[in-house]
Design brief:
This protein has four helices and seven strands, in the order αβββαβαβββα. By secondary structure, it is α+β, with helices and mostly antiparallel strands. The chain has a single domain, classed as Aminopeptidase, CATH 3.40.630.
Length: 173
């Protein structure tokens, strides 16, 4: 997935096998340190059977500095074969609910290159709010790079809990 140029189109580069393995190790360490992280997303083939790996969805805390950090970010990455099926939105809905009901966070943000219309559409389906004045140049992307400009979306606990969403949590959480 991380080596697929189409999946990684809005990232500075694809990841090598070693880089992808290091990323997975970093994810695992984060899950061991906190009550949140990036969780594997798998399809269910039955009540107890685990289906194929689809990608990941979850929470992270960016280590770089921007006007809105420190923060907790919700993000996702899916295999191309599973795009357009609603999996990112469904899983992210569960993660947001977990964020506000179990972790008691006050706000969760999400961001993507302004060119990444698929991820922006997920943020919009989640009911997240964008203030165009908060869009930013990602500090880890060269300012002259076409991917530098990012859209910032926010969801607050108040808005989430007032939207009558079903109270659900990620499996195993």
């Amino acid at each position: 997935m991380n080596a697929d140029p189409e999946v990684m189109k809005y990232f500075p580069s694809v990841l090598s096998s070693d880089q992808s393995d290091l990323f997975a190790e970093t994810i695992q360490m984060g899950l061991e340190e906190r009550d949140f992280g990036l969780w594997a997303l798998q399809l269910r083939e039955g009540e107890e059977d685990e289906g194929p790996f689809v990608g990941f969805v979850g929470l992270s805390a960016p280590l770089w500095t921007a006007a809105f950090t420190p923060c907790v970010e919700i993000g996702w990455r899916l295999h191309r074969d599973h795009w357009g099926m609603g999996y990112a939105t469904e899983a992210a809905t569960r993660i947001l609910d977990y964020s506000f009901t179990r972790l008691d966070l006050g706000e969760v943000v999400s961001f993507a290159s302004v060119m990444n219309l698929r991820s922006i559409a997920v943020m919009q389906r989640l009911g997240m709010h964008r203030d165009l004045e908060e869009d930013f140049a990602h500090p880890l992307v060269d300012a002259s790079d076409r991917l530098s400009r990012h859209a910032l979306y926010r969801m607050t606990k108040r808005v989430w809990t007032s939207s009558n969403r079903t109270q659900i949590s990620p499996a195993g959480a």
